[in-house]
Structure formats: C-alpha cells, structure tokens
Amino acid sequence: MPVPTIEWIGGVDGKIKIIDQTLLPNELKYVYCEDRESIFHAIKTLMVRGAPAIGIAGAMGTVVSMKDCKADDYESFYRELKEATAYLGSSRPTAVNLFWGLKRMEATAQENSQKPVSEIKEILLNEAITILEEDKKICRKIGENGEAFLKEGSCVITHCNAGGLATGDFGTALAVMFAAADKGKKISVYADETRPLLQGSRLTAWELKNAGIDITLICDNMAAHTMKRKKVDCVIVGADRIAANGDAANKIGTYSLSIIAKEHNVPFYVAAPVSTFDMTIASGEEIPIEERGPDEVTTISGNKIAPDDIKVFNPAFDVTPASNIKAIITEMGVIHNPDMEKVKSVIGNNS
Ligand code: MRU
C-alpha cells in the first residue's frame, strides 16, 4: 500500500499535508501547506508532482487560498476565488489535471452561489476531499483494466513516476503493475532514471522496491539496448495531457522511448485517468510544454556537471504521437489503437 502523497488535515481552516518528493528516497519528510503561496511553491518545485496529484493539490490549494477570505457576498468571494485559481494555475502549464481540478472548484462555487460564503467554504473543502477519494478509486480501476496486459513473467519498462506518489494512491502506470502483482503474477520492471530530475530512480524505484516488485534501474539511454538484448514485453507510462486524437504528453524522454519501442515491436501503453484528456485540443501539437530552469540540467544534487554559462534547453515534457501508442488504459476502459473516434467512444463527454 503506497504512502499517502497528499492529505487534508483538519476542517475548513485546515492545511494540506504532502510528502516532499524532492527529498526522496533519502528522506521521507512531510510538509504542510497552509496558504496559496506555499502550495504554489510546492507544485512549482515538484515537492508534489505527477498529473493527478497536482490536480488534487490545486483543488486543496483553492481551499487554503479561500479560508481567510473576508468577503461576505458571493460576487466578491467568487472574484477572489478566480484570482486564486488563476494564480495556482500559473504554477505548471502541461498537466491538464491541474486545470481540471481548479475548474471543478470554480464550478462547485458557482453551483452553490445562493448559499452563505461560510457554507460555500465547507462545500469547497468537501469537493477537494471528494476529488482525492475519487482519484483513489480511479487508480484502482485503471489497475484492474490494465493488469491483463501483464502475464506471469512479463517484463515492463516505465519512465518517470506514475505511481502512488503521483496520484491519490496506487498510481496509473504503476497501478497496472501493482494490480498484476496483487493477482500473484511475478513481473519485473526496468525503470528509466528520468533525467534531469530523476523521478525514475528516486521515486519509481523506491515505490516498486517497497512493493516487493522486481525492479532494475537503467539510465535513459539504455532503453534501446535493453529492448534489444533482454526480454521486454511492453512499455507502460503515465500521461500529463492527452489530446482528443490520443497524442499523449508525458515526461521528457517518453517520446524517444515510444520510438525505440516501435523499432523493437514492443507494445507501448499509456495509463491515465479521464481527467488527463483535454478534448478541447485536437492534437498534441497544441499541448503547452513546460520549460524549466538551466540548473536542473547543469547540476546533479547541487554538483556542477557543465561549464559555467552554457546554453541549456530544458523541456519537462514531450508528446508521443497516438500512432506509437498501442492502447490507453483509463478507468472507463481501454482505448485500443487510439484516434479521435476511439477516444470519444470510450470516454464520451467525461473529461
Ligand atoms: O514533472 P513531473 O514529475 O510532474 O512529471 C510527471 C510525469 O510525467 C508523470 O509520468 C505523469 O504526470 C503521470 S502521473 C500518474
């Protein structure tokens, strides 16, 4: 059972408790976010990370942002709420779950506009907790829907971290592995280390090792050789935003992994909740890709690994075309050989 990555502590005046994922696996430290600035900082610096987890953080962040709001009429309250959601939404641009969570909080306030502000604050807290609880169920369902792709003895490559740490619990890509293991299947996993921030080596390796799953760490540039020389049955990764045609943005390096998988006839699966689909964009071309600072590339654990003032390009995500994806595993079912029509037929209007 993964450790809870995000929780709400207390009542409407309470706080968000998160694991500081930047310190794992060396230290399991909890951080408490009591205002909008601290949760913004936690999302931006990847203390809390992974698309579904930042959706939950955005929803809970809306509650901490509004708890001290002095407005006693709905219009003023909603104006402040919109400022808060715009601010939280400016923390990271790619994972659509963040915007999905923030919009859901705005819609909840609007639906309850006739009620006193004190009551709306309580309703918003309940909504944020509901989003967390729903996510836990969604992760289990993704695991259930995907575990048949793994047989006794299957070997998987995964990239970044799409585990319990990236969600309410259990994960998306890792949910498939956890669910297969729970069914008694002996599987093995290669985790790409995932430069520059090492979510694969720091987080995925930690989670799978804790779960007793056979895990081997490789550097990102070892995936092709591993597929050529070892028995690799499939790739399973998560996603941060999936366009209407099935193109999927995920951690930088996922696209190259999909090309390597295609070259070696290894099926490539994406596991993601319906909240990761952005049906307002037709293709992956339109997905905004976060670019982060140069230090993540020029240093490792604070140690300089490049000359001073070197030019750096540091995109945090890339887009895998739907044509490289064998199936997308969601809580509503599996989308085989995804395209716009098949995406619509499985998720309908639910994103
Ligand atoms: O920059 P990160 O660590 O937030 O990137 C996370 C990923 O790319 C995950 O694979 C994705 O969010 C899926 S999490 C279930």
From TrEMBL:
Record keywords: Amino-acid biosynthesis, Initiation factor, Isomerase, Methionine biosynthesis, Protein biosynthesis
UniProt catalytic activity: 5-(methylsulfanyl)-alpha-D-ribose 1-phosphate = 5-(methylsulfanyl)-D-ribulose 1-phosphate
Biological or metabolic pathway of the protein: Amino-acid biosynthesis; L-methionine biosynthesis via salvage pathway; L-methionine from S-methyl-5-thio-alpha-D-ribose 1-phosphate: step 1/6
Signal peptide start and end residues: none
The keyword Amino-acid biosynthesis is assigned to this record: yes
Catalytic machinery residues: D240 (proton donor)
EC numbers: 5.3.1.23
Chain sites annotated for binding substrate: R49, G50, A51, R92, Q199, N250, K251
Any one of the GO BP annotations: L-methionine salvage from methylthioadenosine
Function: Catalyzes the interconversion of methylthioribose-1-phosphate (MTR-1-P) into methylthioribulose-1-phosphate (MTRu-1-P).
Family: Belongs to the EIF-2B alpha/beta/delta subunits family. MtnA subfamily.
UniProt name for this protein: Methylthioribose-1-phosphate isomerase
Organism this protein belongs to: Candidatus Scalindua japonica
